Amino acid sequence: MSSLLEQLIEALRVLPGVGAKSAQRMAYHLLERERAGGQRLAEVLAAAMERIGHCERCRDFSESPLCATCASPSRDAHLLCVVETPADRLAIEQATGYRGLYFVLQGRLSPLDGIGPRELGLDRLAARLAGGEVQELIVATNPTVEGEATAHYLAQLARQHGVRPSRPAHGVPLGGELEYVDRGTLSHAFGSRSEMV
Amino acid sequence: MSSLLEQLIEALRVLPGVGAKSAQRMAYHLLERERAGGQRLAEVLAAAMERIGHCERCRDFSESPLCATCASPSRDAHLLCVVETPADRLAIEQATGYRGLYFVLQGRLSPLDGIGPRELGLDRLAARLAGGEVQELIVATNPTVEGEATAHYLAQLARQHGVRPSRPAHGVPLGGELEYVDRGTLSHAFGSRSEMV
Ligand SMILES: [Zn+2]
Ligand SMILES: [Zn+2]
């Protein structure tokens, strides 16, 4: 086996869920049938790793300082939805008719892993809540133990600034991950969110 | 969602078995946790798509005109093993103690798809069999209908040049693909190969 081929198989294993056998299958597939697609992937991947950073307002992935959603004048700035990951944000955007703004934690509170309010950018979130424009904070963290603890913390933070916290309702399976919930369920849960008490 | 991110998700779908959802998961994973690995993959992938061609002797993938196996003086040139794909060749190399040489068809006879002897490089194989060095042709095509038809053709070709054709024995499941056979089975099948009659 050529050394460059071995390097390719090894490099492909950086992808999640890709072990030695499927990395090998991917490498052979590209070499046999998808040279152009492989070249294209190499170019886009290099550009993406280099140029995609975080939106300075919502912390979602973005090529520019402000992401398209934050920069849009047609979104309702009275509604702010907090999610754990960019994938959660995308799931909500695709499944629901939500027209407010987002804040992406890029994680959840996890003191044992050294992830506190600072690591999640909650100082920036607090400043935004203090700004007076946000009226409702939709806390869409995952219904896991850490996600619930994070939600509780965020609800308190909202109330401190006179902002009403709410949480998407029934439908998201307990212990599940928002990202993998079907669209219908997620849309329903989002529509019937309840105020946190 | 940023346009470059959308392009990355789309480009990842060139990989086999990767749909929209897993392409998205891969993109987020790389951006969140594997920037360096993603950069490395982009570089190796570009180099591999550009520089990996085929060995002019055995048709396996190779960066150089002659692959490492064909160039090695320690392989037994009296034994020649014919396989359908580079993955089959690798499976045999890893599972068995085979020390002969290979010939990679990069396919199998399939007249309806326009794949005949010429497309599989069988003129080159015939010239090699005529050379007099090869004593046994191990026909390790897959035990599928087309693989068996190809094996039959290759056995005839071998006999025409006074070369003994053989076929790996029991153990490879009927209708299966060599690439996915466990090592023990493949090694056994290879060791107890029988002469084709
Ligand atoms: Zn933003
Ligand atoms: Zn070779």
Annotate the secondary structure layout.
Two copies of one chain form a homodimer.
Chain A: H1 3-12, H2 20-33, H3 35-51, E1 53-54, E2 61-62, H4 68-71, E3 76-83, H5 86-95, E4 100-104, H6 122-130, E5 136-139, H7 145-160, E6 164-167, H8 183-191, E7 194-195
Parallel strand pairs in A: 3-4, 3-5, 5-6
Antiparallel strand pairs in A: 1-2, 6-7
The structure holds zinc ion (2 copies).
Main structural class of chain A: alpha/beta
CATH class of the largest domain in chain A: Alpha Beta
| Order of strands in the sheet with most strands of chain A | 4-3-5-6-7
- So, CATH architecture of the largest domain in chain A? 3-Layer(aba) Sandwich
Number of domains of chain A: 2
Low-confidence stretches of chain A: none
Note the gap between the termini of chain A: 63 Å
Sum up the overall morphology of chain A in one term: elongated
Largest interface: which pair? Answer: A-B, 53 and 53 residues
Order of helices and strands of chain A: HHHEEHEHEHEHEHE
Bound heterogens, unique? zinc ion
| Overall pLDDT level of chain A | 89
Roughly how much helix do the residues of chain A carry, as a percent range?
40-55%
Number of E strands of chain A: 7
Function (chains A, B): May play a role in DNA repair. It seems to be involved in an RecBC-independent recombinational process of DNA repair. It may act with RecF and RecO.
Zinc finger (C4-type) (chains A, B): 55-70
Pfam families (chains A, B): RecR_C, RecR_HhH, RecR_ZnF, Toprim_4
Protein name (chains A, B): Recombination protein RecR
